[in-house]
Fold this protein.
Amino acid sequence: MNDSTPRVISVSSGKGGVGKTFVSVHLAAQAARMGKKVLLIDADLGLANVDVMLGLHTGGSIRNLLADDAALEDLIVHCERGFDVLPGGSGIYELTNLNVTEQQTILDTLRDAGKDYDLILIDTAAGIGDNVLYFASAAETAVVVLTPDPTSLTDAYALIKVLSQQRDVHRFMVIINQTDEIDGHITFKRLLSVADRYLDVYLDYIGFIPQHPSVRQAIQQQRLLTDSDSAVGPHLNRLFNTLLSRPRDHSRSGGLQFFWERSLSSTLDEIPAEAAQGASS
Ligand SMILES: Nc1ncnc2c1ncn2[C@@H]1O[C@H](COP(=O)(O)OP(=O)(O)OP(=O)(O)O)[C@@H](O)[C@H]1O
Ligand SMILES: [Mg+2]
């Protein structure tokens, strides 16, 4: 694999509200601090809130890319913490289920934009909907966030199962949020034992994030945590250093173009041939 192609990392979860957006924005900030040029895509389309968490003023969203042929550079917002954001659009029902033509438009746009970035981060919606499967399988690395709650654990397993069996994604990075070191390990072991037994997957435990009131406080103030807020800031730095220093996934070689097209072709496999032909012509 050519390391000059941008690394594409998706952040997903089975259950909602487990901390995906919190992880995504802080991971983006950490990579930017390490000197990487980062684009964070808010792919929780229809219920997007990266912009809200960061207190950004947006002029448009992915919707304008699809509906108005807007240029990507007119939609991207630069965050003061040193990375770019492509807003996802909120309250727009049509975005919750992209059709194949819309997926192709996003693919083309991001493939062009990819050359300007070292890292593309995709904050997806929760669950196993089409958009989630599309974005998560388009990435080189799929990160799954969960908490120790049994419902979060079973939903994370369901997401991993569907991605592996339907989208050929077999390697996952796992982050357990709102926990401590011991419960984080116990939760990961539970996920691993059932995944090892029933699925053909490799799970890489990146680590845990402590539960702390400073997280909620920072989100309420629409700002990112800093090292001086609480122990969570430095903890996140270490966690994301671990994640970013993992070697790139050579089994999914080919770079951004490969991943997006691979994702699109698995979508095309699921629709009638004539419709697929029409959509791609
Ligand atoms: N480590 C933590 N400590 C304390 N509270 C946390 C922590 N992580 C997340 N939270 C709380 O959980 C809420 C949800 O976080 P976030 O919006 O990142 O989740 P999400 O997975 O992106 O949700 P959605 O599925 O709706 O997109 C936050 O507003 C915050 O209050
Ligand atoms: Mg979110």
About this structure: Residues 7-280 form a domain with the Rossmann fold fold (CATH 3.40.50.300). The longest helix spans residues 150-167.
